[in-house]
Every structure is written in C-alpha cells, then in structure tokens.
Amino acid sequence: MSHTGKWPRLAAVAASAVVALSLAACGSGGGGGGAESGAASGGGAGGTIKIGFSQLGAESGWRTASTESIKSSLTADKGFDLTFVDAQQKQENQIKALRDFIAQDVDVIAFAPVIETGWDEVLQEVKDAGIPVILVDRTIKTSVDKSYVTHIGSDMASEGKAAGEWVKKNVPDAKIFELQGTMGSGPQIDREKAFDEVVGADKILGKASGNFTRAEGKTAMEAALQAHPNMNLVFAHNDDMGLGAIEAIEAAGKVPGKDIKIVTIDGVRDGLQALVDKKFNYVVECNPIFGEQLAELVKKVAAGESVPEKTVVEDKAFDQTITQAEVDARAY
Ligand code: GZL
C-alpha cells in the first residue's frame, strides 16, 4: 500500500466517538492521541497493511509469549505485511527500527517501549511522516502531543497492588526484598509504586534491579541474601527474576516458598510450575496473549477508524491452590 504523504492521513481524522474494543478502558495515554487515528491512505479496506513492529527484546518467558502471539496474529493470510525487529533491550535499537520503518513507508508502526522516556525526537519524526503509532505492552512519557493513537497492555499498577495486598494479608511480619525490573520501564515504575504503597516502605529492606531476566535476578538475589540475612519475602517484578531468586536462595541453603516466600508477576508456565512446586507463593498474571486484539486495532488504525485510547488486557492471580492440570493447560 503506497502512501500519499502526510496530509491525507491527518486530514480525514475519524469522528471521536470511542469504539470500546477493550474489556475496560482506563488510564491516560500520557501524550497519546486518544480516540482518533490518522486516516490511512490505503490499508484496511481490503489492502495489505504494511506494519513495522519494534519488539524490545527476548528477555523473559513473558516476552517470548508476547512475540509468539503478535507474530501469529499479524500474518500475511490475515492481510498483514509484518516487519518485526528485536531490539535486544536497547532503546537505541528501537529508535533505529522506528526510523527504518519511516524509510520503508509502512502504514502503521507498533512498538513495545523498553523504557518510558527518550522517545520525543523519533516520535516527532514518525508524526511528521504521518504514520500512526500503536503502543504495545509498556507505556511512555512524551511531550509530543498525539504521538500515538492507542495503547494495548495490562494495568501494571493494579498488578503491583494485587501483589501488595496478598503480602499485607498473608505475611504480616514481612521483611521484603524487591527485585525491580528494567529501571525506568513502565512495569518497574508502576508495579513498584503500587506495591510499596500497599505494604508500606517500612516493610522493605532493600531493592535491586534484575532487569527482568533470570540470570540478573539470581545475581541480584545473591547479593541481597548477603546484605539482608533476615529477609523472609521477595517481591519480584516478574517470574523470571523470581526463578533466578529460587536458585540463589537454594544455593544459600534456604527453602524458597518457606524460609523466604516469593511473590511475582507474569504467570508464565515456569512461574506457575514454581507455584505448584511450592517455591513461589503468589503469582499475579500479566497476560501477553493479545495478538488478535492488536490485529483488530491495527486494521482500524490503518483504515482511519476510531479506536479507544487504551485497551486494558485483563489479568488474573494464582496462589498455591493451583493444580498441575491447570498449569499444563495454560496457553503460555
Ligand atoms: C509487562 C512486560 C514485562 C514482563 C516481563 O507487560 O513489559 O516485561 O512483566 C517482561 O517479564 O520482561
């Protein structure tokens, strides 16, 4: 699908009536464009939609599941010409990918931003090129007005709140160490703030980032065990860091799930298996399987139709009552 330049896409901006695609629409887009998208000059109405997707990396089981869901939904037989680029958790690689997508004259750009800030310059370039942007998974903070049309992802703050409420109810004497995700990322910021507000700062012995990976979570936990021998609970911002923490706790001769309880977020199969094995105590889901919802949003955006400012992906939570059969039946 060829473009006819900037103006036609921006001129025919659809009416602002919000079409609720989501199960719940909430939160502000932080500079997003809200319920309107620039009218595309082709795709959507029977044409192949050329979409560039910048994925932040392959750091965790969650990201792998997210990538699988996206690639299996944005397929050629469903009308998409997908260019998918993995940034290995480096923002400069994502910025380069977005610039490449401009040069390739794609119809829509979608990306999962590794951190919240540092996007203004490239988003202004994308806006000047008249290409609509969909934010996927993580959020951004930007001064560029209407820099993206819509966001689809989980409510990270509610995940942190759910984790905190379980700890407050079930571990009143908690002495907590917090394994943070990638510093400056939306999930790290939002999960940490919500969790800390619920449990109280006085319950938190210390924090360190494991960058959402199992290896770095293990390394951070090894140091934390030395610094805080009295800790009795770890809150990990994702399962993979929690799984790394299990390795460090066992190497230190302690029993994960008992001597040191573990609360995490994601709900990937390995994390839920740790719950069945009684090494995790509570897991808040962050559902990555929203490729089909994304595909619908891409079609609407490409056709210049109205879309909700935010599509919130619903999450559940799991404790040790989960069964092996339930884990085996999980989609990811
Ligand atoms: C959350 C997602 C986070 C996951 C991690 O939506 O951005 O990034 O919680 C992943 O597993 O690395």
Task: Describe this entry's structure for a reader.
There is one protein chain. Strand 8, helix 8 and strand 9 (261-266) form a beta-alpha-beta unit. Strands 2-1-3-4-5-11 form a six-stranded parallel beta sheet, with helices on both faces. It has a six-stranded mixed beta sheet with strand order 7-6-8-9-10-12, with helices on both faces. The chain folds into two domains: 6-154 and 288-313, Response regulator (Rossmann fold, 3-Layer(aba) Sandwich), CATH 3.40.50.2300; 156-286, Response regulator (Rossmann fold). Helix 2 (61-73) packs across helix 10, helix 5 runs parallel beside helix 6 and helix 7 (214-227) crosses helix 8 (239-251). It is built from eleven helices and twelve strands. The chain is 37% helix and 17% strand. The longest helix has 15 residues, at 156-170. It is an alpha/beta fold and 332 residues long. It starts with 5 loop residues before the first helix and ends with a helix. Residues 59-60, 62-63, 137-138, 153-154, 187, 212, 238, 240, 265-266, 286 line the site of beta-D-galactofuranose.
Helix and strand topology:
Blueprint: H1 6-11, E1 49-55, H2 61-73, E2 80-86, H3 91-103, E3 108-111, H4 120-128, E4 133-136, E5 150-153, H5 156-170, E6 176-180, H6 186-199, E7 204-209, H7 214-227, E8 233-236, H8 239-251, E9 261-266, H9 269-276, E10 282-285, H10 291-302, E11 310-312, E12 317-319, H11 324-328
Parallel strand pairs: 1-2, 1-3, 3-4, 4-5, 5-11, 6-7, 6-8, 8-9, 9-10
Antiparallel strand pairs: 10-12
The structure holds beta-D-galactofuranose.
